[in-house]
Amino acid sequence: MSTVAKAKGFRHSKPGLWLSIGTSAFGAVSIVKDVKKARGDNDTLKLINALVGAAALITGTALLVRELKRLGDDDVLLG
User: Fold this and answer.
1) Burial 9-22 (b: 16+ CB within 10 A, else e)
2) Is 12 helix (H, G, I), strand (E, B) or coil?
3) DSSP symbols for 21-46
4) Is there a contact between 72 and 78 (Cβ–Cβ < 8 Å)?
């Protein structure tokens, strides 16, 4: 198996999904900062932008968790 094929397979493995979820957690920190800054500046447009980003982050994380559960369901040892 080539290195490129291994790298593509890592994305759909449990460690790859956990890494993606962890990366999303760092994104959440940035969104919280954006929301606080927008509130402090009373900038409605920046606040809406931050909230839309938060919704996208939540949706992406939910998709990753769903994929992680599917991998767990396919595991023979889990029953």
Assistant:
1) eeeeeeebbeebee
2) coil
3) HHHHHHHHHHHHHHHHHHHHHT-HHH
4) yes
Separation of alpha carbons 63 and 58, rounded Å: 9
Phi, psi of 72 (to 5 degrees): -70, -35
Prediction pTM value: 0.70
The string of pLDDT tens digits covering residues 1-48 is: 566 555 566 666 888 888 888 998 888 999 999 999 999 999 999 999
Distances (CA, A) of 46 to 4, 11, 18, 19, 40: 39, 32, 30, 29, 11
